[in-house]
Design goal:
4 helices; two-stranded antiparallel ribbon; flat; about 90 residues; mainly alpha; binds zinc ion
Length: about 90
């Protein structure tokens, strides 16, 4: 059984940033800025932002706490901001 965040985010059919189509087996990753699923080229662009290091550090600091209620699986959810995943994983 998939967790709620996985149903909502990991199987998104388009990149939230550039609207590129994402197939089930395409790798995607969560943005540390808005927690939306984005494609890996958008993640590359995101990583080049000057405040990326700060934002990602803050994100991981609060992620575990904040998402426990929302998603029930803070470990998996927070982890996927830094490691690409696919819909059927
Ligand atoms: Zn994209």
């Amino acid at each position: 059984m998939k967790d709620q965040w996985e149903r909502e985010l990991s199987c998104a059919i388009t990149c939230h940033r550039c609207n590129k189509q994402l197939a089930v087996k395409d790798r995607r990753i969560l943005s540390v800025y808005d927690h939306q699923p984005i494609c890996l080229s958008c993640k590359d662009a995101e990583e080049k932002k000057p405040d990326y290091a700060d934002v990602s550090k803050r994100m991981i600091g609060t992620c575990m706490m904040e998402t426990e209620v929302m998603y029930g699986d803070p470990g998996g959810y927070c982890y996927h901001h830094f490691y690409p995943f696919t819909c059927d994983e």
